[in-house]
Amino acid sequence: MDINDIKTVCVVGAGNMGHQIATLCAIHGFKTVCTDISDEQLQKAEAFVDKYLPGRVEKEKLTAEQAKQARENISFTNSLEEACKEADYVIEAAVEVLDIKRKVFADMDKFAPPHAILATNSSFIVSSKIADATNRPDKVINLHFFNPALVMKLVEVVQGPHVSDETRQISMDLCTKISKVPVHLKKEVDGFLLNRIFAVIGKEANWLLEMGVASFEDIDNACVFGAGHPMGPFRLNDLTGLDLSYTIGMENFRNTGDRADLPGPSLVEHYLKGEFGQKTGKGWYDYTKK
Ligand SMILES: NC(=O)c1ccc[n+]([C@@H]2O[C@H](COP(=O)([O-])OP(=O)(O)OC[C@H]3O[C@@H](n4cnc5c(N)ncnc54)[C@H](O)[C@@H]3O)[C@@H](O)[C@H]2O)c1
Fold first, then answer.
1. Is the dihedral of CA 275, 279, 283, 285 positive or negative?
2. CATH 1.10.1040.10 fits 195-280, yes or no
3. C-alpha dist (Å) from residue 148 to 23, 46, 151, 237
4. Would the pTM count as exceeding 0.85?
5. Ligand 1 mean position to 5 CA, how many Å?
């Protein structure tokens, strides 16, 4: 099998990441089925597509014909079975909880054709923790997109010891076909490449905040105006989700026992109030105000 055999993509999870990954695949010519357990999320995702595609035509990034084709390519369903049944490549972008991912992968394995590759967009769960929930471990891989997936070029393709070279090659080729820049991780490592690097910056930024050295706004300003980052770590955190950072911090602590890995008190405070960032209207910054 090679990339030319991949015609239909299924995206599982229509949240922050999933709806954009699905839109991207549809724009690049794949028949794309997006699925979620939440009808509300599916409606939001469909409304996004209906607004985004005409917007791209207005900005002359797509022709009207390309937008029409992309719209025809994408469909939405709350049935995982329906979504997977014709898929050649499945990208899972459901919540970052290992038990849920293992259950979703077992179901994907049941419903998708035997040749289909099953990828996870997980931020830190390596696919070897999921692969044995399926009967095709050689076809289970990490395909890690960045947020916002329609904009960010990088995709990390992580080849665990169970992953075949064919699966890795098709995954790299798929990324290229949807205009992304894939990087190949030859070994599994928690956090992969870029998030490990960002974690160091994030940890230091949180320490500076918790020690009262500077406000989060000023720490962000230092990174933007001093280091030329497109946004500071707190603004970025609002984009990626404070709930995700909380989960990752807790999971890291469980793995290492190192208290330095625990989410900081300010992050925990926002988390407990349900302030997860842009998606809830409030996180470090308040998006409900103009
Ligand atoms: N947010 C980011 O910046 C970012 C970046 C890269 C990777 N990721 C990873 O992508 C994945 C999704 O993150 P997100 O930010 O889009 O989360 P999100 O909370 O915005 O969306 C998750 C979606 O999964 C759905 N879902 C939950 N259980 C499901 C199931 N059993 N079947 C189908 N759908 C289910 C939820 O209804 C929700 O719509 C996570 O693994 C995360 O680690 C996130």
1. negative
2. yes
3. 12, 17, 5, 12
4. yes
5. 27
